[in-house]
Write a structure and sequence with these properties.
Low-confidence stretches: none
Shape: elongated
Mean pLDDT: 80
Number of helices: 7
Strand content: 15-25%
Strand order of the largest sheet: 1-2-3
Number of domains: 2
Order of helices and strands: EEEEEHHEHHHHH
Helix content: 40-55%
Radius of gyration: 22 Å
Length: 154
């Protein structure tokens, strides 16, 4: 009867049974050729976006991050993995991509994710991460583009 594109890149179809007239709505998603994930131990698994969502939910537990934001992040990682053109992708590359996205969403969730992902063994390693993040926040990106000091440009 009717087909429409939904916001989540799926197709919503409205169908009707020819015999009884019963109407049904279905959602269809294009199946992308996602790469196989190579784990740290060398084993290979199919790409599973539900695992990414589960990890993000754990990192964002009791944080003001909405489920829609997490789902959008998962879609972004999935699209990144699917459009890279590679048949195999290291789990570390996926983790780096998640960290990159999560850092801009919620710094506390980012630290939680990194602490599990990087598996810190000492407090010193963890504090070094915090120092690095603090330095990155204090960088004046506009100031970095100046090739010459104030006195030389006048």
């Amino acid at each position: 009867m009717d087909s429409r594109d939904a916001r989540d890149h799926s197709i919503r179809r409205r169908r009707q049974c020819v015999e009884c007239g019963h109407r049904v709505t279905t959602r269809e998603r294009l199946e992308e050729a996602l790469p196989t994930v190579i784990k740290k131990d060398g084993s290979r698994q199919p790409f599973d976006s539900s695992r990414i969502l589960r990890g993000l939910e754990i990192a964002c537990r009791k944080r003001p991050v909405e489920v829609q934001v997490l789902e959008r992040m998962v879609l972004e990682v999935e699209q990144w993995a699917g459009t890279g053109g590679e048949r195999e992708l290291a789990s570390s590359a996926i983790g780096e991509r998640i960290m990159h996205i999560l850092r801009s969403v919620d710094p506390v969730a980012y630290i939680r994710f990194v602490s599990v992902y990087q598996s810190f063994s000492t407090i010193v390693e963890f504090s070094e991460l915090l120092e690095t993040m603090e330095k990155a926040e204090n960088v004046d990106y506009a100031g970095q583009r100046q090739l010459f000091g104030e006195s030389e440009s006048e």
